[in-house]
Amino acid sequence: MIDYQSGYILRPVKPPFIYFSLLIALLLNFLPWGNHAWVPDWLIICIVFWNIHQHRFVGVITAFVFGLVMDIHSGALLGVHAFSYSLVAYIAIAWHHRITALPVTTQILNVFPIFALVSVFPVLVLWALNEQIYWWGLTSLIQAAIEALLWPLASYLLLLPQRRPIDVDPHRPL
What we know:
mainly alpha
């Protein structure tokens, strides 16, 4: 894989690193910060990132399983996070060519609709079930904006182990 911003060829990603980063993101979601609009969903940032960059290792089924774990943790209607995470994973896989070809700052505009979908989806489900819309639930768009603004940082941190050093030793095999 080529990092289009720097022009370097990235090393192959190791699956244990992918699953370790997903576990860390899940544990960050488990922290007792409350359900505020300023708290990003770390797990969905990580799931979208790995679905865009390495969709062979993290796919829709992985997103569905992590969504079920988040449903159980949050006490929400079972399947809301699971369906929204798997839908977002499918969209991220479908858009991965478009997003990876852009600079990281432009990628923010392309991942914002993905994050907005996952944050507004529970509000739409409650609207369909209760036949009344909770307008305060649309403050979750603030959360989607924060997640989109965190995208360059996540991209830098999660691609860091794959970057080759700039000064390459000619005697080193890789």
